[in-house]
């Protein structure tokens, strides 16, 4: 009788308890980094991040060498199931993170009908946001991936897609006013460009397989902090984290700024949303206040909000001050964050352990030859705003 009662109890209540346990990881502010490397990271890589005090890492696999056209997907033009050899590579990376004591958020850069532009000859792939057939394939992909990963102890969340942009070719300009976004959404609602509806469908597909793992969803227009403005409500799932990225003003933080005859500096006047603005601590605070106000108005606690990426090109003047001001806002709010990026082996621009110097030719030669880059990393001043805040308290 006791065995029967225990079995019944486990059937009824264990899934909910497991879900609560996984969400409990996110109950206090968590600090980490992004891993968007071209080579699958080994245990030493994760241990180096853990040594700084990080508790989690956001891992994307789309730069890894695929068995077929697209890593894990096989072919983003027509999804037919996970590629077993690619999945084994991903699981090995998760094992490496687990051995180092880091939790992982798994995030694809591509889905069926939405191949990441850098794997698509630089072209933005809008098919997912025009044709719901691809969205059904994306739901099947996430069923398959959740089935494969749901029991892995390193996995702390599924980030459904990196930097979605259904608005890009949908007649909504970037950084539009909240009123303009809401008017646009009234027309887009129910179409393939309805991002909250798309997420709802993916979440439902995952919950058919996995009732416990938290789901992370990003705002539109490449994860812009102001782009939750048109979302009328949170998703109908108690285990969801809401994520945005912070690279504004992009004219300052991005690589093209280095190529300007006179680069923009921070603090300073920088173009944003079609006009020249003065960007300083107060302007960053005002900009980042938008997703926080959206969440509070919908009774979403701050421990369910994530700044999933942020950064600036390490060699531009004012990058250190910029990082410090962005993190000051995030930490005052008590939200989670992950800096971009940790020891990236294909793009040095936001690898803050390299300081503000150019990388030597050996870095690029290693990329050409498919080898690990040979550079040593240190806690340089450019990394200091992040380093001193990484340990979770």
Automatic annotation (TrEMBL):
InterPro entries: GH, Glyco_hydro_5, Glycosyl_hydrolase_5
Matching Gene3D superfamilies: Glycosidases
Start and end residues of each Glycoside hydrolase family domain: 39-344
Family: Belongs to the glycosyl hydrolase 5 (cellulase A) family.
Signal peptide feature range: 1-19
UniProt KW Hydrolase keyword: yes
Keywords, alphabetical: Carbohydrate metabolism, Cellulose degradation, Glycosidase, Hydrolase, Polysaccharide degradation, Signal
One Pfam family from the record: Cellulase
Name under which the protein is recorded: Cellulase family glycosylhydrolase
Highest taxon listed in the record's lineage: Bacteria
């Amino acid at each position: 009788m006791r065995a029967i009662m225990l079995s019944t109890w486990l059937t009824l209540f264990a899934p909910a308890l497991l879900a609560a346990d996984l969400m409990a990881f996110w109950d206090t502010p968590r600090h980490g980094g992004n891993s968007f490397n071209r080579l699958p990271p080994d245990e030493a890589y994760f241990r180096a991040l853990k040594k700084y005090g990080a508790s989690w890492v956001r891992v994307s696999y789309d730069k890894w060498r695929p068995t077929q056209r697209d890593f894990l997907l096989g072919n983003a033009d027509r999804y037919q199931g996970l590629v077993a050899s690619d999945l084994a590579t991903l699981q090995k990376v998760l094992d490496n993170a687990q051995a180092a004591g880091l939790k992982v958020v798994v995030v694809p850069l591509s889905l069926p009908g939405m191949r990441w532009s850098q794997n698509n000859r630089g072209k933005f792939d809008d098919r997912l946001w025009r044709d719901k057939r691809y969205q059904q394939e994306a739901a099947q992909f996430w069923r398959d991936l959740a089935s494969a990963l749901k029991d892995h102890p390193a996995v702390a969340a599924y980030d459904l897609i990196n930097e979605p942009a259904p608005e890009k070719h949908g007649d909504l300009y970037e950084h539009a006013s909240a009123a303009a976004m809401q008017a646009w959404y009234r027309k887009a609602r129910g179409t393939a460009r309805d991002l909250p509806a798309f997420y709802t469908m993916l979440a439902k597909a995952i919950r058919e397989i996995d009732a416990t793992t938290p789901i992370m969803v990003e705002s539109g227009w490449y994860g812009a902090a102001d782009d939750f403005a048109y979302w009328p409500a949170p998703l109908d799932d108690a285990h969801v984290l809401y994520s945005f990225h912070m690279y504004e003003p992009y004219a300052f933080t991005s690589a093209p700024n280095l190529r300007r005859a006179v680069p923009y500096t921070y603090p300073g006047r920088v173009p944003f949303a079609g006009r020249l603005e003065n960007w300083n601590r107060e302007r960053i605070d005002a900009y980042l206040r938008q997703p926080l106000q959206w969440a509070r108005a919908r009774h979403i606690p701050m421990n369910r909000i994530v700044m999933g990426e942020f950064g600036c090109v390490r060699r531009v003047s004012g990058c250190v001050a910029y990082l410090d001001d962005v993190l000051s806002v995030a930490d005052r709010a008590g939200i989670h964050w992950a800096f971009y990026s940790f020891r990236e082996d294909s793009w040095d621009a936001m690898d803050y352990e390299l300081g503000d110097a150019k990388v030597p030719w050996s870095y690029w030669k290693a990329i050409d030859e498919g080898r690990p880059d040979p550079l040593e990393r240190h806690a340089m001043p450019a990394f200091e705003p992040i380093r001193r805040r990484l340990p979770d308290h």
